[in-house]
Amino acid sequence: MKKQLLRLFILIVASCGLIVWSFNLIYSASDQAYGYALDAEELLQQGQLGFRDLAPESIAFAPELKAQLAEGKVIALRQADDRLYFYTLIGDKLREMGPVSPRPGDSPINLLIPLLYASLALTILLLIGRVFRDLSLLQRQAIDFGRQPKRMHSHISKRSAIYPLAQGFETMTRQIVDFIQLHRDLSRTMSHEIRTPLARMRFVLELTKGQLPANYAARLSEDIDQIEALSQSYLTFARVEHHSGSQGLWVDADDWLRTLAENFSIYGEQLQLLTHCDCRASDGKVWLIPLGMELAGQNLIANALRYAQKQIRISLVADASHWTLMIEDDGQGFGEGKADLKKAFRRGDSENSAGFGLGLYIVRKIAIWHQGKLRVEDSTELGGAAISLRWRRPVL
């Protein structure tokens, strides 16, 4: 960066020197164009050019001008029409020479001044424009990387002032992509390597159930179930955390909501599962990423099943610019610190809180995919929790 700073400093100094030199040329040219090479005193003494003799009292001079005339000096006066007259005392007479015409206003030198300013503005624009062009390119690449992490090549010249910044950005993208790939490989390894020993443990547990006390066998079975649930939650978390970006689709809102609710129809005998769909504002359609939104809906309904007493309400509503998917229950609702539940590995404080604190975090990430927001609040109708996912319509 020091080299770029030194280069920019030298460039600015050279530009300032060019500006000073250019103004000197203009000043010299203007002197040559506008200057009057005449000796007014000698011309008045000799009576050359146009002159006339006047009575000294015919012109009311200021006292300081009268003093200069008395000393034999030549004074100049400019009239209202911008014409110049010269005066001096010769004996007892006041001699006047003039008028001298004003400077011409259409001299070619007048055209040079705006041309110089325009060239200076163009030079500054060229100097700054390259920097802003490179910054704009780097900004677009950073936005693309945020949408889909991949190795980036800035294609910025080594002579650019922001070349070190571009190199640092490229290095950062490579490190992040490598870390994401390592995380994905770890997730795949866990999914394959953990399931095999768990299956063997279940098989051995079934064989030895008759030889173990019932409470020991039940505890071992619960531990195996917990490890499997943790493994599945982590795999879902990793898939959402490093999502590569799927394309959204327009689907029928009623059909999508009905399919989502049917996945939990087996709980119909224990709880009343209500659905409400009002997407008339979007012609009965909804734009979403199918896999992501289905995963979000299932997580929210699974959370509601854990706390609900008798009723769960699933609603999908469209307005002029957004859709809102809301899951409500008639449970005990949220206590303090409900905003923290959207963070990873955060669980509620109630006795029924289970899982590993990834459910709402996953839903929040899916909301970000849809450029939406997740809200955690209390239900005004059912009295329990109300979790809503609100996302806006895509710009077509």
UniProtKB/TrEMBL annotation:
<dbReference type="Pfam" id="PF02518">
    <property type="entry name" value="HATPase_c"/>
</dbReference>
<dbReference type="GO" id="GO:0000155">
    <property type="term" value="F:phosphorelay sensor kinase activity"/>
</dbReference>
<feature type="transmembrane region" description="Helical">
    <location>
        <begin position="111"/>
        <end position="132"/>
    </location>
</feature>
<dbReference type="GO" id="GO:0005886">
    <property type="term" value="C:plasma membrane"/>
</dbReference>
<dbReference type="InterPro" id="IPR003661">
    <property type="entry name" value="HisK_dim/P_dom"/>
</dbReference>
<dbReference type="InterPro" id="IPR005467">
    <property type="entry name" value="His_kinase_dom"/>
</dbReference>
<keyword id="KW-1133">Transmembrane helix</keyword>
<dbReference type="InterPro" id="IPR050980">
    <property type="entry name" value="2C_sensor_his_kinase"/>
</dbReference>
<keyword id="KW-0812">Transmembrane</keyword>
<keyword id="KW-0067">ATP-binding</keyword>
<feature type="transmembrane region" description="Helical">
    <location>
        <begin position="5"/>
        <end position="27"/>
    </location>
</feature>
<protein>
    <recommendedName>
        <fullName>histidine kinase</fullName>
        <ecNumber>2.7.13.3</ecNumber>
    </recommendedName>
</protein>
<keyword id="KW-1003">Cell membrane</keyword>
<dbReference type="InterPro" id="IPR003594">
    <property type="entry name" value="HATPase_dom"/>
</dbReference>
<keyword id="KW-0808">Transferase</keyword>
<dbReference type="Pfam" id="PF00512">
    <property type="entry name" value="HisKA"/>
</dbReference>
<feature type="domain" description="Histidine kinase">
    <location>
        <begin position="189"/>
        <end position="395"/>
    </location>
</feature>
<dbReference type="InterPro" id="IPR036097">
    <property type="entry name" value="HisK_dim/P_sf"/>
</dbReference>
<dbReference type="GO" id="GO:0005524">
    <property type="term" value="F:ATP binding"/>
</dbReference>
<keyword id="KW-0547">Nucleotide-binding</keyword>
<keyword id="KW-0472">Membrane</keyword>
<dbReference type="InterPro" id="IPR036890">
    <property type="entry name" value="HATPase_C_sf"/>
</dbReference>
<keyword id="KW-0418">Kinase</keyword>
